Amino acid sequence: MSQPHDKTPVTDSSHALPAAGESSAGHAHHASEKPHPTWKQYKWVALILTLITVIEVWVYYIPSFVASRLFVPSLLIMSAIKFAIVVMFYMHLRYDHKLFKVLFTGPLIIAITSLIALMFLFGQVAVRLS
User: Fold this and answer.
1) How far apart are CA 99 and CA 33, in angstroms?
2) Contact present, 59 and 74 (Cβ < 8 Å)
3) What contacts 11, CB < 8 A, 6 or more positions away?
4) Is 119 a domain residue?
5) What's the pLDDT tens digit per position in 69-108?
6) Total number of domains constituting the chain
7) When comparing pLDDT for 30 and 45, which is higher?
8) 82 and 51 within one domain
């Protein structure tokens, strides 16, 4: 009969506690994965997203800029930058395996290309060659 409080050290690494500072989430780390961001990095990302949003709202209240042809493209570019930041950091796509990056970005590129092609096809984006 074995003792319930055996003092012998654990030699099986699958049952051992992680070392100080290591994650105990139970996920194996692969060589191609990067370490996940810290809280400090998340705060910086949130600050950058907030600043871009403030610029978007501020630009909306400049009547001369709203009337210009740069208004919509600038908002679309800022929104695309915010989208990329959210996908990379908060969806952890930047730190995942390359397969997940391809599975996400491949269809996204196809969708964007299709959208631009349809806009050209139906005259929403005019190209004047003369």
Assistant:
1) 11
2) yes
3) none
4) yes
5) 889 889 989 998 998 888 888 877 777 788 888 888 888 8
6) 2
7) 45
8) yes
Q: What is the pTM of this model?
A: 0.57
Rounded percentage of the chain residues whose pLDDT exceeds 90? 27
Distance CA 69, CA 89 (A): 32
Let me know if residue 23 belongs to a domain: no
- Shared domain check, 107 and 84: no
Give residue for tokens 């501020």.
Answer: 58
**What DSSP string runs through the chain?**
---TT--SPP--TTSSPPPTT---S-PPPPTTPPPPPPHHHHHHHHHHHHHHHHHHHHHHT-HHHHHSTTHHHHHHHHHHHHHHHIIIIIS-GGGS-HHHHHHHHHHHHHHHHHHHHHHHHTTSS-----
Distance of CA 74 to the CA centre of its chain: 20
At residue 65, the pLDDT reads: 93
Domain-located, residue 130: no
Domain boundaries, position 52: 36-91
